[in-house]
Amino acid sequence: MTTPDSAPFPVVAARALSQRVSTADGSLVILSEVELAVKAGETLAITGASGSGKSTLLGLLAGLDHPSSGELFLLGQNLNALDEDARARLRAGRIGFVFQSFQLLPALSALENILLPLELAGRSDAHERASHWLARVGLATRAGHTPRQLSGGEQQRIALARAFATDPEIVFADEPTGNLDFDTGARIIDLLFELNASAHTTLILVTHDEALAARCQRRIHLVAGRIA
To answer: pTM of the predicted model, to two decimals?
Structure first.
């Protein structure tokens, strides 16, 4: 495997990555000795049955959690050597997220939800870019609507706009069609890959959706916390 110690290095890499949690019955292994490298611009699907460790792996790769053992590299940085604040600074403006439950802030309008990460990243053109991305996902007329005034498909469009608005180098998506009906999910898939192709972003996603996984260049399948 190509590693961050050699050039060129992947934008995401895991070495002997394991995650365990303590239970009343002892230690429960969620992930075991995962080895993975993802190149810039690659699209990767992580599949597997419920409980196989998919979302845990995604969260670790994005630096949202600490592994029990192993090494993680994100955008050339060794995550093991960074504290929470340093990890947050690394993600700001360079990493986008799309979640199954949309994770829009309910008190903010559609436009404000897209604007927030741009402002946190210190973009001087934040309002202009937020408006551009709202139009890009076809919801310019819904700028003032709050999430509860939007359908599930519209909320996920806003989430996609929020994820791509900062020109991230990597987008992580956790079951992006999981809360949508088949037709709406298919449209979200098309939009996701359209945005990703135009932005040349690395895309790493967790999914049960075979149609979504099939659109990715590569797939890994987890079985009981190991890559099958």
So the answer is: 0.91
